[in-house]
Amino acid sequence: MLWELKSDRPIYTQLVEHIKQRVFSGTYPLGSRLPSVRDMAQEAEVNPNTMQRALAKLEEEGLIITHRTSGRSITEDASMVELAKTKLAKDQILEFLEKMQLMGFEQKEILTIITNLVKEMKK
User: Fold this and answer.
1) In the chain, how many H helices and how many E strands?
2) In terms of C-beta distances under 8 Å and separation of at least 24 residues, what long-range contacts does 9-13 make, across chains too?
3) How many CB atoms lie within 10 A of CB 5?
4) What would the pLDDT profile of 60-77 be if each residue is shown by its tens digit?
């Protein structure tokens, strides 16, 4: 998964999202050890301080655990990961619904569009 960072939002928030996606997708499995801050910063082509800030945010949220002598790892708490995943999904859906309403779509129209897209994906 590439670190595709854009200039429209703070870099550290994008890093948080990318790392969360890696946890949710299983790229970083529960309990797995994370690469060093420097290695992750180099891979993402960002300043190590920026990566450190993103990791600190994820630690605040409980997705990452810091071990004094062995670096950082992903939490082993599957319910914590599921909670974070559900919150992210809800946030994205709310953002989508707000944009649809701003464009003038009614609830029924939005649901019809979504239903049709889901049907197309199944094909």
Assistant:
1) 5, 2
2) 11/46, 11/50, 12/50, 12/51, 12/53, 12/54, 12/57, 13/54
3) 18
4) 999 999 988 889 999 999
